[in-house]
Amino acid sequence: MVEAERKKHTNIIEYIIYMYHSEDVVRSCQFSIDIIRERIINPKAENKSERAELLKWYMDLVEEMEADNLQDRGHVSAVLECFGELSYLHKTLMNVLQDKDYLALWEIAYPNLLELEKKTNGASRNPVELAVNGLYGVVIYKMQGKTPLKSTLEAVESFSTWLNYLGKVYRDVKSGKFTLPKTMNN
């Protein structure tokens, strides 16, 4: 199983960040399957079967990104669908179920999201996407050998904790393990 598929079933937030990175890899390799094979697939794959599976996965990703004009920016439909589902779940946990644990985590993350929204001029469509963009931004920043400010790390920690809870509920919903509370908080 390709790493992206494994992550999609185990941790949806990690999956989205993995897909962000994969899209950036495709862009940095100029959408060339030969470059991707040489720099990514061959060093990573342990055997011929794994190489073939990764090659197909990257070929499909390149094809979709080209078809959707994602050469410079943007995300594949699978990522956008995840944001839609997570946004819907977020609203359900907040407004319908009024999940107390979720609301407590949201209260901690929300001021940091507002601050990030100001810095990004409202570039994200919803709070889940905004938080994931913040997490990914810090990952990229660290990959460049830079050290984020303490306040940035604290904000990202609040996003991470909130998104982990949302991701767990998402996994439970997808696997059929989610059950509605016996009494609602509203």
Task: Provide a brief overview of the structure.
This protein has 186 residues and is mostly helical. The protein has eight helices and no strands.
Q: What is the tally of helical segments? A: 8
Overall shape: it is: globular
- The H/E string reads HHHHHHHH
Gap between N and C termini, in Å?
Answer: 42 Å
What's the helical proportion of residues? over 70%
The low-confidence runs, each spanning 5 or more residues with pLDDT under 50, are: none
Number of strands: 0
In percent terms, what proportion of residues is strand? under 5%
Total number of distinct structural domains: 2
Radius of gyration: 18 Å
Mean of residue pLDDT?
94
User: Largest sheet, if any?
Assistant: none
- Give me the secondary-structure category: mainly alpha
Any chance you could write out the topology, listing elements then pairs?
Elements lengths: L2 H8 L1 H17 L4 H12 L3 H20 L9 H20 L3 H20 L7 H17 L6 H26 L11
Please provide a written account of the structure.
The chain is mainly alpha-helical. 75% of the residues lie in helices and 0% in strands. It starts with a helix and ends in an 11-residue tail after the last helix.
Please name the defining characteristics of this protein.
186 residues; mainly alpha; 8 helices
